């Protein structure tokens, strides 16, 4: 079931939650960006859908939140801090490393 | 995730603690990578591959992964080399290349094209696959390669392509590639059509590959192994082309072909090869076709000379463009052009040279003068005629020089981009031949004289200005400006005294221009001459008014006197022939008038000396022949002679002796005057006995009652107008010039020494030259002589012990 809207992409967590994210925001991650690269034509690019086997919905949600946060404040100064629950911090760090964000 | 606050809890799942089996993960990964090579990526999940690579790296298997990937790519490339590329390598290259040339060009082209095409496809596949692998293995690149400072997998795999495809030890693909590309380019240069795009892609490939993994910009494969061969082959090609063109084409065609080649190579390096080579290949073409051959081309029959002579502006422009490419100084062009210019100048000089010109002159002299040439009078007339011819020649000379200058100026603006250097050398050339011609200052002044006397009639102010400007530009070229000044003064004085000048404005303009060129010192005497004329005008009218007011005197009523009082230092007295007192006895009514003016003048300006120069004036006489009224315009001398006949009964004659006594005109002048009155047919007012062509002291003269003329006003041509000098006059002039120069040199020496007190000989000489070069080029020997003379007169002295140093004696 391919997502028709080419401006957004579907991110799916390992427990089956679907997050529809604007592509431009998700592209903040080079990993996601190359996954969606039309030239290499991987399954993800074809279906416009990425399944992350190593992320739970809680984490992925926070990731998506960050994507928008990043896009919103990309060029701004005096950026307000983003809320990160301490219990998620370490896991988020690892995922950030994975996504190269 | 750059912000963390509060307490950090361990992750819920211990990712880091999971044991990972390398082989298991690698097998999946390798399988997928092979799928990528087989272009089946769409079945694969990027995320899965990425995650696998991520895990392997995380578990410290990075090094093994890296090596394995390399191995996998090498195996693939080996297969590609054998399966895809080898069959299309032109066979001759593999076996050594001996038979390569025999294939027909069509076969060669198609074969080459196919080979390049395949190589291009292989390269693009490789690039694409490596791009995908790089993406998938991004985590490895980022963590493992960066940490261990080894080249990223992409770079490494590009190196693998270089080693296993291009430099394949068995098949020599790289060499084949070079040969094929060069071959194709050669075909295109010879007029075939080739596939630019394929070559371009292959060149892109060469440009994207480097000698080693550092990817140093200067070590692109393109630069290291292709470009050199390309340039060498091009050099060879253009060398032959140059020889062929020189043999087959005329100069213009050669230039056009060269220009075309240059633009072809330019577009070739943009469309087909790499822009990196653009300057290099340009240098090759420039060297082979321009630098090595341009001189020969310009020397051709149809070369530079032909173009200059025939106004081939376009061709000349091309010459300039091409020469400018290889030599910013354009030395070759300058030299050749100046050579031609000087050649033409010498030609003009030769035509204007009196000795050659006089060969033409006798034909122009009427036969009646020819038989009595031995007689002094006729000889003088002859000389006058010759001199008049010279005037024509002088004007022609200037005209020709100006025409030449116009022509080259045009070439310069239209073809040479108004190049400053070329202008300078053109100026040099003009200077050279103009100064080579000794009469140039005289001729130039004559030209200006001619124009100011009659040439300017009917011309607009702008045209006048143009003519004068041209004259000035030529003037600039003259080294001996003082000689010019001398002639100009002489000519100007004649114009002023005889009212020959067409326009005062034009005269003033000319002087203004001269002033701008060489400064006030040069022109203040000329301006003084004008001032004298103006003051004289005022004074004359004032004098006349005074005479009218004076009751009981009728002097001035019958005679209208105009006096020009000349300041003797401003006017070239000597060259006007007024060395000493040139006077004569005036008839008494004139004498009275003269005395009254003298009184008047000295009354106004006491302490001045007024000397009357009869030889420079002229007079209008009213008379009648057989009842027909005539007005005669004659020189002052002629007037005195004619008035002498007033005092004797009509029909009587006066002997030469008596005339001498009555008029006390110097004998030579009297002869000349009588000649104009009694010999020249049109103005034979006096009857001479015997009626020979020349005037002797034994002759007698009477009024020619039978004189007729269809004009009422008759001009007796006595004082000849400005004309070129005869040889003798020239010699006098140059002697006088030398004399003046001697004074100027002495003045300069004294000026310098007064300021410097002590100076060495060499320094002094160079100072003098630099001070005087605006007026003339002093001769070193002359300077030396003047210094010696100054030492004799004790202005200077040698310093004891130092032989070549002088000191100034106050």
Automatic annotation (TrEMBL), chain A:
A Pfam family the protein falls into: Skp1_POZ
Main location: nucleus
UniProt xrefs under SMART domains: Skp1 (SM00512)
Gene3D superfamilies: Potassium Channel Kv1.1, Chain A (3.30.710.10)
Name of the protein in its database record: Elongin-C
Regions annotated as coiled coil: none
UniProt record similarity statement: Belongs to the SKP1 family.
Subcellular location, record wording: Nucleus
From TrEMBL, chain B:
Top-level taxon: Eukaryota
Any coiled-coil regions, as ranges: none
Family annotation (InterPro entries): Cullin (IPR045093), Cullin-like_AB (IPR059120), Cullin_homology (IPR016158), Cullin_homology_sf (IPR036317), Cullin_N (IPR001373), Cullin_neddylation_domain (IPR019559), Cullin_repeat-like_dom_sf (IPR016159), WH-like_DNA-bd_sf (IPR036388)
PANTHER family referenced in this protein's UniProt entry, alphabetically: CULLIN
The entry's keywords: Isopeptide bond, Ubl conjugation
Organism from which the protein derives: Morchella conica CCBAS932
Ranges where the Cullin family profile domain occurs: 439-678
MF (Gene Ontology): ubiquitin protein ligase binding
One example of a Gene Ontology biological process annotation: ubiquitin-dependent protein catabolic process
UniProt name for this protein: Cullin-domain-containing protein
Any Pfam family the entry gives: Cullin
UniProt similarity note: Belongs to the cullin family.
